[in-house]
Automatic annotation (TrEMBL):
Annotated stretches, region: Disordered: 1-34
Native organism taxonomy: Eukaryota, Metazoa, Chordata, Craniata, Vertebrata
Organism domain of life: Eukaryota
Entry-linked PANTHER family: CYTOCHROME C OXIDASE ASSEMBLY FACTOR 4 HOMOLOG, MITOCHONDRIAL
Sequence ranges of Low complexity compositional bias: 1-16
GO cellular component, one term: mitochondrial intermembrane space
Listed InterPro entries: Coa4-like (IPR039870)
Biological process terms in GO annotation: mitochondrial respiratory chain complex IV assembly
Coiled-coil boundaries: none
Organism: Otus sunia
Name under which the protein is recorded: Cytochrome c oxidase assembly factor 4 homolog
Biased amino acid composition, Acidic residues: 22-33
Length: 92
């Protein structure tokens, strides 16, 4: 009995004009968490933390990056809290 050849890897196809699948489109779309972090202004600190975690594979070795990211996010929360407590701030 003959075995069929294995299918091609994702993203390759024998049909060159094939539209991208929804799975491929999702891979190209920005991650919602990354988009949220980008809006905080702390994307650089988050990227450094992720790079450390990928390299060291132990969060305990990434304390400096973790503190930097946490401090950035805390500053962002403080600024937002100050804006929300200002008179005339519209909450809607």
């Amino acid at each position: 009995m003959k075995q069929r050849p294995k299918s091609t890897s994702p993203g390759t196809s024998s049909t060159p004009s094939r539209p991208p699948s929804s799975e491929e489109e999702e891979e190209e779309a920005e991650d919602p968490l990354d988009a949220l972090i980008s809006r905080t202004g702390c994307a650089a600190q988050h990227r450094q933390l992720q790079e450390c975690m990928a390299a060291r594979r132990d969060w305990r070795h990434c304390q400096a990056q973790l503190r930097a990211f946490g401090q950035c996010m805390a500053r962002r929360q403080w600024v937002l809290g100050r804006q929300n407590s200002q008179p005339g701030w519209d909450h809607e």
